[in-house]
């Protein structure tokens, strides 16, 4: 165009530049404008304005103002649209003070701005959190500078709603209606979102109904707000109802809708349904974004389906969807919790390479995993590493480290870290103090725990119920009963004075150590608290041994309620007894082995109309199996299955089936246990690690080694992670069947999966090695697990016996002396083995 002869008029250039602006090719517009000027093509007002807009979009505000100077020099009269471009440019740069000064200068020179000008200024103020200033500008504009419109009101209403000032937003809405400014879908969306943010879902739904009645049609954003809120509250069914409305109104679901629904299912642990939604989304042509994948990865990790999460992560990379820090954090946390710490650390390196620097949340996950894995030295090294990188730890980070140090037996180091925090002025929370107090209590340092409680109060950190419980239990364990009762009285007084004092644990173990008078005082004090009915009785069942007649305390109902019964107090005070309360009582009878009484109790509660849940029936079945009444437990299962309770709580049904399998395995009827195991699959009740442990152990008890190994392999295929009990059972069974070589592979596999071998695991291997006269290997293994701070139990006896049998009399004598020096209680078998050793030595001398 520039080389045409004659040169086209400026209007033609304006059309070209305008199309480039619509495509957001702002640098090209600036470049072409400069070429026009060089070839002496005279720009008109439109081309000047297009250039000014492009410069503002690129953030070149100074050059944009120089264009305004040219417009004025050429004698053009600027319109409101010209000033709006410059005001918007200043707002985009975040320079609100300069935008307001420019506004004042323009108005002072007699230029008139329009509704768009003030809409831009109000929006700019709200975006930087100056909602109050935006409201003042609206008042200043009203009827003087311009007529307020729905855009101005909507912007301020939206800002107020996001600031949780919903009442103020509603007042502005009322003012808007009074001034005949019609609310539109954006007005209602802002208010509905505000109500949802502050948890007023009923008001949000009422407003939704109101907008429909006023013929303001909701859009996809309106529905997304409701879907997201329902899902975040775990009300996925209600969210599905909203989706049905969307489909009925022919409103297409977008990626935000699907993401909210997936998140809702993940929150209620229904990850498979979330995955179905993920697949449906793709089938309907909606491309998942980074949040779609992040939601699913986090959901899979939370239910320990880490392999599925890894596959999705790889799929993201294949589809060129760049994972963000949240994606990496979710996967790293899942890997750490499943014992895959080395892979998690590889991902941290990948984050650096991809320009997604790890944050404190990333390192918290790895730090927590290392501490739980007893790798405290590695945890400390990691802590120093990320501090050197400039990542500041939070109080939560220090809590993880202090807890890890305390549990790792390094109380001095934990105390040092804790005191450094106090010196540095950190605002420590109650959890930090509780961790440290618990560490003192476990180490028997009760005076230090009490001193820290006092210091905690002095520092303005209010102890909670758990703080008191930790110290009271420590006092009881150290026979400081008077101090414990005194502290409990203080706790009761605190609860009576402070209405906000929560007491979820007050009626647990520690309270049951006291006299009935104190116990009933606690019952009366916290009777109005919602958790009395569950936690109070829970403590009773745990510590029934502290009462002379525990059955009289708990086993009573209806007209025969004992005056000292906690359950009686609950009913007399007209609290609603739920299935949890009844289940705790039933569990109490089971713990005492009172199967007849708990069956009688069952008949009474059912007869009086109480509804027992799946946990109650599972407890019944478990109690019967534990006392060898597996057949009765099976009859009970058939009685309630699908009749007395609905088979919808899968986890509770797993417990019931597992109890039955365990019962059959105890009496070596493993084939019947296998039938129960198969029935679980037919009834779509997924077996868990406990179910497999029972069956693997059962098969080994009757020497069915191959069947046990097959089940172990099946666990891997079904993505069920074996725990320490699984490996210990498998190693013990293999060792007893003579397959000693396989145990080393299993030990390595355990460690790789973050399942640390315990003393039972090592005992099985040591026994097998000694019986096979591989005493040197056994001694090497003993040294190895001593290095891991695992204390031997009956292993010395084992070595003494095998050393004697293999003729290593001096080694056997050393083991015997070691037992006496360490203060072990020596059993008669040990003395017999010692005598056998001496007799062998005497015979050798005789020869």
From TrEMBL:
Keywords on this record? Repeat
What Gene3D superfamilies does UniProt report for this protein, alphabetically? Answer: Tetratricopeptide repeat domain (1.25.40.10)
In terms of InterPro entries, this protein maps to: PPR_P_subfamily (IPR050872), PPR_rpt (IPR002885), TPR-like_helical_dom_sf (IPR011990)
What residue ranges are annotated as transmembrane?
Answer: none
Could you tell me which residues the PPR repeats occupy?
44-78, 79-113, 114-148, 149-183, 184-218, 219-253, 254-288, 289-323, 324-358, 359-393, 394-428, 429-463, 653-687, 688-722, 723-757, 758-792
Top-rank taxon of the source lineage equals Eukaryota
Q: Indicate the family of this protein.
A: Belongs to the PPR family. P subfamily.
Query: What is the name attached to this protein's record?
Result: Pentatricopeptide repeat-containing protein
Q: Which organism is it from?
A: Pisum sativum
